[in-house]
């Protein structure tokens, strides 16, 4: 089964948006830390920035054919939360059950998070509801 070209294009755009929001989020975390914010506050600010950028760019460029309203925002946050919980489960499994180093475990969850988050965005969050 071959995926339609527009799915490949959205997957590519979704990946580029992910790179952009990751760079922005990490930058905010580092700058906040340098300005004296504790690690928790720095991470909240960084991840919040990344989520705003992710939603904005994905809704406008990746899934631009969709209607965006408060329900779209709520679905986006729900998709993120679910994907992140699955990611944390993978990290827990990799560190506690398989006994891998924490860094390896953290990296192991990234593809799972990205795949689940993309599928939820493609078929639930930004699905064209016209």
Using brief descriptors, characterize the structure shown:
0% strand, 130 residues, mainly alpha
Description of the molecule:
This protein has two domains: 1-64; 67-130. With 130 residues, the protein is mainly α. The longest helix is centred in the first third of the chain and has 30 residues, at 5-34. Helices cover 82% and strands 0% of the residues.
Write the layout of secondary structure elements.
Layout: H1 5-34, H2 39-62, H3 70-97, H4 102-125
Q: What value does the Rg take, in angstroms?
A: 16 Å
Number of helices: 4
- Hey, roughly how much beta strand do the residues contain? under 5%
Number of domains: 2
First-residue to last-residue Cα separation: 28 Å
* Residues in helix, %: over 70%
Beta strand count: 0
Gross morphology: globular
Task: Give the low-confidence spans.
Answer: none
The ordered H/E elements are HHHH
Based on secondary structure, the structural category is: mainly alpha
Please, what is the average pLDDT? 88
Largest sheet: none
Summarize the model shown:
The chain is mainly α. The chain has helices at 5-34, 39-62, 70-97, 102-125. It contains 4 helices and no strands.
